[in-house]
Design goal:
The complex is a heterotrimer. By secondary structure, chain A is of the alpha/beta class. Chain A has 18 helices and 20 strands. Chain A folds into 3 domains: 238 residues, P-loop containing nucleotide triphosphate hydrolases (Rossmann fold, 3-Layer(aba) Sandwich), CATH 3.40.50.300; 156 residues, Rossmann fold; 69 residues, no CATH class. About 3% of the residues of chain A have low confidence. Chain C has a two-stranded antiparallel sheet. Classes of the chains: A alpha/beta, B mainly alpha, C mainly alpha. At the B-C interface, helix 6, helix 10, helix 12 and helix 14 of B face helix 6, helix 12 and helix 14 of C.
Chain lengths: 502, 324, 322
């Protein structure tokens, strides 16, 4: 008998169908991978199981009997615990308090018991003992931990609920390899104990390493469930996207032709030091796409953000074109011709709840010192920029939140194209957007580079990075450790360089 | 755990006791008062200060509970007024004997708690913005208070205010109440509830996803707020010895100020109950210092205003520096 | 057809429409209970009172739109102070009008600037900053009032505020209308307006898009102080002379008017047109309760309860469960 079964579960928000027909059968002692492109509904499906989203329709069976899961609390009582991608931690509370939080009130007594809580948390911290890193401590407020440490705490909190069914929604996105290995060991142990695990990840290697079966969701509907041993990455991708394999996706760039003729330097960075950045120097020529690679969180993003003036402190020399960048603020950087596109759209890009027009024009307005806003004349210009990226929208006056993630990101890029910069800083720009939009985005970036724009690209997807960069700088611990050119731009060399120094 | 023990321990002293900066300000103000007017530090003067500001101390602690969960209650003053008139009128109706006083006080505490629960249901149950919703419920409570006692002035039996202003075993009665409040705070911060409450204030959605009964936790905070506001009302009755349907309304914003002075962030999730009580005393000491420092009467309010503003700003800045 | 019906349904749910229909309903009710309640002269009177609240609410609206828990509790203090300043400077003479309005505006701008600097440079939460400033202003009020005899409104100002000015409508209401138009233009047809909404919706993203968020927020507080000052100036025209702490009654109602007008306290959406309707709604409601001739207790109770019911129409938070 399956541990958990979902049949025809659906959820709609107004006119938008978040999940059309979700089916899932979860057995004991398996790691069940849930896959689907972004917006396909896998998060909605897991949130329905978690009790934090109310389904409109469908049947949920737990151990053979039909159940409703009206709240996360009810899910917990059914033996379900969830690792939330966006984390569910209280930043002012200590590590121990966070780990014990879900079970706090269930254990009787009015008063807390510090020693008891620490003892209760200990077995769940122990498996990660060797990879916790500096600054981790039982009494340290979670808000003071690094991103990877917070993610570990969320994992520990999920484990501490001691459920029978685990849902892990992107649990490893901030972890390094050693931390992932510890986590995989824990998962194997849980599997051996007969627990059921729903696993969502964008890391294909992990999926094949730990997964038993895979259920694929496309456009809100479950399309297939199969054993991972009987399938391949290629087949999964085909099922996920509903497309045939796109040959050699983007034609790899030939060894940058621009370098041959005396290039004009668009960006020169010397001894840049900022939080997470440890003396970085490089030059970027007009028409060049320079990639930042390496393990996640080694300073790639920190360099880009520091260049754009969002780091609290910064030292070193930055020259854009022929002028030296003085002020440390986005406005100063914009004025000198820098542009920045963040992968974290919700935090850094999208002005939520406002119209597409208002989201497209701010840079143009700033550079042209506009005082009044005429929706008609601004609209024409904005429409042109949006057209360049083939952005799909109904009306410029609709809120930006009405667009899909990919189209929202196109709006953000268009924002910069309305008044083209000299240098574009792309900080994992395709995070969480669909493949068609990615392709479109990189086609336009190529064109822009061909017209002489200089581009810095950090991508968390190695293939994307290698395919689109003329050169790749490999980062480790806030420094550049190697430069990959020409034929060296391969995953092998990338990881070789990244781990060599690690 | 492998961690740099020393630095994190130093930090955690302030983190575990967020009232320390407030305590510092309190001591500084005591010294300033002592310099300006040595008599202001006499036993009698301190007793008088506490007698006057005990109500605000309770009210500030009351406000803290809702602020911890990132809510706010702008009706605490109105609840105080309502309980004040309910108790005074009940004592009168029941004949004014010791039994009637006790019964009236119990009813008053119940009324305050119910008012708090009502706030909780309105804000949490109906999902209204706490600032505007509790402003509206405050008007409702004021209406009820005016219905119970339309004009100020009904006196309470002598025994009531004699006790409040008197001594037991040579120690002023109000000191016992302070100790009672301290014990309450000592117990409250050791409950599991306060951890859950802080988690709710820290990140409401995360707390819900963690399986906490967020709605119940928030309503409980409003109920506790009402309960303690009722105790504040009893102190006011002891101090003023009469019923007044609007006596507490001006105290609402002072309770918020005291909470902030005590090192609690209005954004919720962190702070200190003890700090809030100290914050109330700070407000009292600022007023007395301005008086004793010889500021001319017309400038006194201004000087108080400036001092409170500066203290508030300093409180916010210091608290933030520590939690960094 | 369905599209039409959904757009009608949307329209019915907009705060502006809700507020306007409630105003109409209340006026009808008032007329039924006490004939003459909805007469044109009575409506003018109501509008004059509403316009003063509405002007205060304009500044409040801007500060709230700018987000980051924007709120201005000091408006009450500015209203009181500028009423006293205006009275003292005019002393019943028309020649004093111009100096008085300038002095009021400067006062409002000054304290708004202080609020703005505290909120941006020192990052003091607006509630705390403006609460502290309220105390300072109330203290200053005592200083300004003492020693100087209470001032009188210039006859010109009193006429402007209370007497028909153009097409039988008092100047105060024209002024409010003009402010309404200017606010709409400011918010919808200027980059400043775009930027106000931008910092209110997502300040971080706005900064990344080159919006000078601190500068914008400071100007919002300055504008709020100035609007409050204008209101204080006009109050003395309405009341004839300044009286103690007249502004206290505008502090929280100005926030309620904004909320009833469909601008949530979280900022970033809404606008002033709704707030104007919210201000009228509040005043009509208060007036109807006065007309009912019931005791103070019942009036307060009914007012508070009605506000609670009205709030159910707007800005309810999202449920934690999707």
């Amino acid at each position: 008998m399956p541990r958990l079964r979902l049949k025809g579960v659906s959820k709609r928000y107004g006119a938008t169908i978040a999940l059309g027909r979700g089916d899932l059968t979860l057995m004991s002692g398996e790691v069940h991978v849930l896959m689907g492109s972004n917006g396909s509904g896998k998060s909605t499906l897991s949130k329905i199981i978690a009790g934090s989203v109310r389904p409109d329709d469908g049947v949920i069976e737990c151990d053979g009997s039909v159940v409703t899961i009206p709240s996360p609390r009810a899910a917990r009582d059914l033996g379900i615990a969830v690792f939330y991608q966006e984390l569910s931690l209280a930043s002012h509370r200590s590590v121990v308090e966070n780990i014990c939080l879900p079970r706090l009130s269930g254990t009787g007594g009015l008063f807390r018991n510090r020693a008891g809580m620490a003892a209760a948390a200990a077995p769940f911290i122990a498996p990660f003992e060797s990879v916790l890193g500096d600054g981790f401590g039982l009494d340290v407020p979670v808000g003071r931990l690094r991103a990877d440490q917070r993610q570990l705490v969320e994992i520990m909190k999920t484990l501490a609920a001691e459920p029978d069914i685990f849902i892990f929604d992107e649990p490893t996105s901030a972890l390094d390899r050693a931390q992932v290995d510890c986590f995989m060991t824990v998962l194997r142990k849980l599997k051996a104990e007969g627990k059921s695990i729903i696993f969502i990840s964008h890391r294909m290697d992990e999926i094949f390493e730990i997964g038993d079966r895979v259920t694929i969701i496309r456009d809100g509907e479950t399309v297939s469930t199969s054993a991972l041993a009987d399938t391949s990455m290629d087949e999964i991708l085909r099922t996920m996207t509903g497309e045939e394999a796109p040959g050699p996706a983007v034609p790899a760039v030939a060894a940058a032709p621009h370098v041959a003729r005396q290039p004009s330097i668009k960006l020169k960075v010397s001894n840049l030091v900022a939080p997470g950045v440890n003396s970085v120097s490089f030059e970027l020529a007009a028409g060049e796409i320079l990639g930042f690679g390496g393990l996640h969180g080694q300073g790639q993003s920190a360099v880009l953000r520091a260049l754009f003036g969002t780091a609290p402190t910064r030292s070193g020399d930055i020259e854009v074109g022929a002028t030296r960048l003085k002020g440390n603020s986005p406005r100063a950087s914009i004025r000198e011709g820098l542009a920045y596109v963040s992968g974290d759209r919700a935090r850094d890009g999208v002005i939520d709840g406002r119209s597409i027009l208002e989201n497209t024009v701010p840079i143009y307005a700033l550079k042209n010192h506009l005082i009044t806003a005429s929706p008609r004349s601004l609209g024409t210009r904005a429409a042109d920029a949006l057209e360049q990226l083939q952005t799909k929208y109904q009306s410029l006056f609709h809120p930006i939140s009405s667009l899909s993630g990919g189209n929202q990101q196109k709006v953000i890029v268009s924002r910069w194209l309305m008044a083209p910069p000299q240098v574009m800083l792309l900080d994992d720009p395709t995070k969480g957007i669909d493949i068609a939009s990615k392709t479109e985005l990189f086609r336009v970036l190529r064109d822009l580079a061909a017209d002489g724009m200089a581009i810095l690209l950090y991508s968390s997807e190695d293939a994307e990075l290698l395919e689109n960069s003329d050169r790749v700088l490999v980062f480790n611990n806030g420094r550049t450790v190697r430069e990959l050119r020409g034929d060296e731009r391969t995953r092998y060399h990338l990881y070789h360089a990244a781990y060599e120094a690690a | 755990m492998s961690m740099p023990q020393s630095t994190s321990r130093q930090r955690s002293v302030f983190e575990r006791f967020p009232f320390i900066p407030a305590l510092g300000i309190l001591v500084a103000l005591l010294i300033l008062n002592g310099i300006a007017e040595p008599r202001s530090m006499s036993y009698g003067a301190i007793t008088g200060l506490i007698k006057t500001y005990l109500a605000l101390m309770f009210l500030a602690v009351a406000q803290s509970f809702v602020v911890f969960s990132a809510d706010i209650d702008l009706s605490v003053g109105a609840i105080l007024s309502l309980v004040n008139v309910v108790v005074v009128v009940l004592i009168e109706r029941l004949g004014g004997g010791p039994d009637s006083v006790l019964l009236a006080c119990l009813v008053g505490v119940l009324v305050g708690t119910l008012a708090g629960v009502f706030n909780g249901l309105v804000v949490v149950g109906l999902r209204l913005q706490p600032i505007v919703a509790t402003f509206a419920t405050g008007i409702v409570f004021t209406g009820l208070a005016l219905w119970v006692l339309p004009v100020a002035g009904m006196p309470v039996p002598q025994a009531f205010w004699r006790t409040y202003g008197g001594r037991i075993f040579e120690i002023p009665f109000v000191f016992y109440v302070v100790i009672l409040l301290a014990v309450f705070i000592w117990l409250a911060v050791r409950t599991k509830y306060i951890i859950e409450l802080m988690a709710v204030g820290d990140n409401r959605l995360a707390a819900y996803q963690s399986g906490l009964p967020v709605t119940r936790i928030r309503i409980k905070a409003f109920a506790l707020c009402g309960l303690l506001s009722a105790f504040a009302a009893l102190c006011i009755i002891g101090d003023t010895a009469s019923g007044d349907p609007v006596v507490g309304n001006a105290m609402t914003l002072y309770s918020v100020a005291a909470v902030v002075l005590g090192g609690t962030a209005l954004s919720g999730g962190s702070g200190s109950l003890l700090g809030s009580a100290i914050g109330a005393l700070i407000l009292g000491l600022i007023n007395s210092f301005v008086f004793f420092a010889g500021v001319s009467s017309e400038w006194q309010n201004f000087a108080q205003g400036v001092a409170v503003l500066v203290a508030l700003m300093a409180g916010v800045l210091v608290t933030r520096r520590i939690s960094k | 057809m369905t599209r039409l019906s959904t757009s009608i349904a949307d329209l019915v749910r907009t705060p502006l429409v809700v507020a306007l229909s409630l105003i109409l309903a209340l006026l009808l009710l008032g007329e039924l209970l006490s004939p003459g309640f909805a007469s044109s002269s009575q409506i003018m009177r109501l509008l004059i009172v509403a316009s003063i609240l509405g002007v205060v609410a304009a500044g409040q609206n801007l500060v709230i739109l700018g987000g980051r828990e924007g709120i201005d509790l000091s408006v009450g203090g500015v209203v009181s102070l500028s009423a006293v300043i205006a009275g003292n400077m005019m002393q019943g003479s028309d020649a004093g009008i111009i100096p008085a309005i300038l002095a009021c505006l400067a006062t409002g701008a000054f304290f708004g600037l202080l609020n703005g600097l505290g909120v941006t440079l020192l990052r003091i939460p607006p509630l705390i900053m403006t609460l502290g400033m309220l105390g300072v202003l109330q203290g200053l009020l005592v200083v300004v009032r003492s020693g100087i005899p209470s001032g009188l409104a210039a006859p010109g100002l009193a006429r402007f505020v209370t007497q028909p000015f153009l097409f039988g409508v008092p100047g105060m209401i024209w002024l409010w209308g003009a402010i309404g138009v200017l606010m709409a233009l400011l918010l919808r047809r200027t980059l400043f307006g775009y930027r106000v909404y931008a910092i209110g919706s997502n300040e971080n993203a706005a900064r990344m898009a080159g919006v000078p968020a601190d500068l914008i927020r400071i100007s919002l507080f300055v504008l709020s102080g100035m609007f409050a000052a204008v209101a204080g100036f006009c109050i003395i025209g309405y009341a004839g002379s300044s009286f103690s702490n007249v502004g206290a009654q505008y502090m929280l109602p100005s926030i309620i008017a904004v909320v009833l007008g469909g601008t949530p306290l979280s900022g970033g959406k809404g606008g002033y047109t709704g707030t104007m309707a919210g201000a009228v709604l509040l005043i009509v409601l208060q007036s109807i309760l006065t007309t009912l001739n019931i005791e103070e207790a019942g009036r307060q109770f009914a007012f508070g309860a009605t506000l609670l019911v009205l709030m159910l129409f707007y800005g309810r938070g999202k449920a934690l469960r999707g």
